[in-house]
Design brief:
- The chain is α+β, with helices and mostly antiparallel strands.
- The protein has a domain of about 100 residues: RNA polymerase II/Efflux pump adaptor protein, barrel-sandwich hybrid domain (OB fold (Dihydrolipoamide Acetyltransferase, E2P), Beta Barrel).
- It has 5 helices and 9 strands.
- The chain has a 6-stranded antiparallel beta sheet with strand order 1-2-3-9-8-5. A 3-stranded antiparallel beta sheet has the order 4-6-7.
- Strand 2 and strand 3 form a beta hairpin.
- It is found in: Mitochondrion.
- It comes from Aspergillus chevalieri (Eurotium chevalieri).
C-alpha cells in the first residue's frame, strides 16, 4: 500500500503536466498588458500611526483626510471620561498643537494633532456620550477629522508595533 502511495504523485504529475499548459505560463500572461500592479507603499495603504503623547491618526482611503483620537492606553490612564472638547470646523492646526481636550474624573488632557491641516469636523458622538472614549478610543470615539496638508508627516510617527513596545515595558 505504501508503494502505491509513493507512485501516485509521480504518476499524476506525468499525466497532468502536458494537459495543464497554464502551469507553464508566467502569471502575467493571463492578464491584459498593463493590468499587473507591483506592490508599493502608498499613502492609501498606511496603517494607523501613533505619537509618543498617546494620540493616533489614521489616513482615510481618499488620502486627504485623517481621523485623530487618543489611544486605548491614554483612555485607560485617564479613567472615566466625563467631557470632550471638540475642535471647530475650519480650525488650522500644526502637528503637535492642541486639537481638543479630554476631561476625566482623574484629570484633563489636551489632544495634540499628529499632523498639520484643517479640521473638517469634530466627532459629535462625543458631545452626547463622552464615555464612548473609554468604550472605543481607537474606533468610533475619534476626536477630529482633519484635511491633512502634508501626508509625509505620517512617516515620522510610530507604527503600531513600536508604539506598543514603548508602552508595555
Amino acid at each position: 500500500m505504501a508503494a502505491v502511495a509513493r507512485c501516485v504523485p509521480r504518476f499524476a504529475s506525468r499525466i497532468l503536466s502536458p494537459k495543464l499548459p497554464i502551469a507553464r505560463m508566467s502569471p502575467a500572461m493571463g492578464f491584459p498588458r498593463g493590468s499587473i500592479r507591483s506592490f508599493s507603499q502608498s499613502a492609501f495603504l498606511q496603517a494607523k500611526k501613533y505619537t509618543e503623547s498617546h494620540e493616533w491618526v489614521e489616513l482615510a482611503d481618499n488620502g486627504k483626510t485623517a481621523k485623530v483620537g487618543i489611544t486605548a492606553y491614554a483612555a485607560q490612564s485617564l479613567g472615566d471620561v466625563i467631557f470632550v472638547e471638540l475642535p471647530e470646523a475650519g480650525l488650522e492646526v500644526a502637528a503637535g498643537e492642541p486639537v481638543g481636550a479630554v476631561e476625566s474624573v482623574k484629570s484633563a488632557s489636551d489632544v495634540l494633532s499628529p499632523v498639520s491641516g484643517t479640521v473638517v469636523k469634530g466627532n459629535t458622538l462625543l458631545d452626547d456620550k463622552a464615555k464612548a472614549i473609554n468604550e472605543s478610543p481607537e474606533g468610533d470615539a475619534w476626536i477630529a477629522e482633519i484635511e491633512v496638508s502634508d501626508p509625509a508627516e505620517l512617516d515620522g510617527l510610530l507604527d503600531p508595533e513600536t508604539y506598543n513596545e514603548q508602552n508595555h515595558e
